Amino acid sequence: MGIFDDVVVNAKSAAQTVGKMAGQFVDMSKLRINMAELNGEITKRYQELGRFIYEAKKAGSADEAELADQIAGIDDLYAQLSAVSAQYASMQDKVTCPACGKKMPTDSMFCSHCGAKLENAPAEPEEAAEAVEKAEVPAEPETTEVTIETEKTAEPTEEVKTEKTTEE
After folding, report:
1. What does the pLDDT look like over 1-44, one tens digit per residue?
2. HEC states along the chain?
3. How far is CA 12 from the centre of its chain?
4. 60's torsion region: left (phi>0), alpha (psi -120 to 50) or beta?
5. d(CA 156, CA 13)
6. How many other C-beta atoms can be found within 10 angstroms of the C-beta atom of residue 137?
7. N- or C-end of the chain: fewer Cβ atoms within 10 A?
8. Could you report how far apart the first and last alpha carbons of the chain are, in Å?
């Protein structure tokens, strides 16, 4: 019965590991959905702000209190997005470069993109959320730049010359 017991213990251990990884995947998916919803809400608020400013300029009067409220609402959404992004990044076990913003593995000492020195230890999720709350919210929306690189290989090409011979 010793071998059977070992098999049962190993199967339980594997099932627990798979369950834990599936739970983490679900949590990360929820965070991604939350980030997408926040980005959508930010876009919606920018449209409302633009419409408000347009109508105010057209009418010749602007309600500064309403304008300040709309701007504060957008800033709050950015703070929420930063907190969710920090939580998502902590779940990925990656460190963000302070100079260029690229994601690097936690064991990296320097950024492979710009060469800046990275922090040795990633911040705890609670500390990251507190740091986000204390940080200033950017005035303009952040954009993510996507670069697609293709590898170019130069292989020599052979020219095949054919000679036509006519036999008469």
Report:
1. 578 888 888 888 888 888 878 888 888 899 999 999 999 999 99
2. CHHHHHHHHHHHHHHHHHHHHHHHHHHHHHHHHHHHHHHHHHHHHHHHHHHHHHHHHHHCCCCHHHHHHHHHHHHHHHHHHHHHHHHHHHHCCEEECCCCCCEEECCCCECCCCCCECCCCCCCHHHHHHHHHHCCCCCCCCCCCCCCCCCCCCCCCCCCCCCCCCCC
3. 34
4. left
5. 54
6. 15
7. C
8. 91
To the question of pTM greater than 0.85 for the whole model, the response is: no
Q: What are 168's two structure tokens? A: 């008469």
Are the beta carbons of 140 and 78 closer than 8 angstroms?
no
Euclidean distance between CA atoms 138 and 132, whole angstroms: 11
Torsion angles phi and psi, residue 109, rounded to 5: -95, -30
How far apart are the C-alpha atoms of 21 and 23, rounded to whole Å?
A: 5
